[in-house]
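Subject: complex prediction, re-run

Hi both,

The earlier run crashed halfway through, so I resubmitted it with identical inputs.
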Amino acid sequence: MKKEGSKRKHLSVRRYTQLLAAVMYNCNLPGFWKGEIYQGDIKGVCVPGLNCYSCPGAVVACPLGSLQSGLASFRYKIPFYVIGTLLLFGLLCGRLICGFLCPFGFLQELLYKIPGKKIKKSKFTRALSKLKYIVLLAFVIVIPLVKFVPAFCKYICPAGTLAGGIPLVIQNETLREMVGALFSWKVFVLAAVLLVCIFCYRAFCRFLCPLGALYSFFNPIAFFGIKVDESKCTHCKTCVHQCKMDVKKVCDGECIQCGECKKHCPHQAISFGYKGIIKPPAKKEESISR
Amino acid sequence: MKYEKVKQILFCVLLLAAVGSLVFGLFDGGFADVLQKARMICFECIGIG
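This time it finished cleanly. Structure:
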């Protein structure tokens, strides 16, 4: 009973954190009806999750947009600030950010709650999950460096279309007159992503998100997150079978550290917290026993 | 055990790189660059440019 309570508590903590992050990133509410974006000084701060800085509500900067913009002007200046920020976020939390601090991930989870037939993970989805690394390399790194264009923002990013493009185009007549084929393409991409997300859990995060791909490299070494107690784990794979992401084991690159596995582990071997990359000093009990 | 040691070293090296990069970037005007970009409507982001 107590265990059930703690599971619920964890899930609600995650939901509240997701909601809080989304609200905090986008708290410039007057921007939505004025059709203008926030221009205060804190907008130079990059947040960990995918959140378009052209959203009328956004009070902070999107790390992925800032990275592409920085790489597009690489000839003049290396974007150390953005690279350092992303490295720090990745090292501290890895893909815990996807599970807790990404507003677009939160939206996808809400869409998946719509009742209906769901697409389960398979070898196909596992193979498709590699696509995000290609998107990261091509659209976030190579094209901005070579063509000086933030290609992911321009051609793919559904978060930008949803939070930035559509509200601004609705409110701003000048922008409405500028709408063309590219905007139609981006609305199509957004519609396709949102539709797929109703049937497939976090489809954008799993198959397309370059920010998730970037953070996935840090998952095994991140400071905080999900950890498995090897002394309790029997390798029954219940965690992997219950997980909706394309994980092969807990805390691999695909794990968004949502804690769903913690709920299902029959041996309570999974927990959240400091992952022990840097070992703390030996415990008192151990030194006493010696 | 050896793998754990490699992870620890990698973590420390990357942490140093991250903090160094962030601090250097701040002094180098990185914050101002992001701010300048974020203050304007990004035509690429909204699908116009």
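Chain B has a mean pLDDT of 90.

- K.
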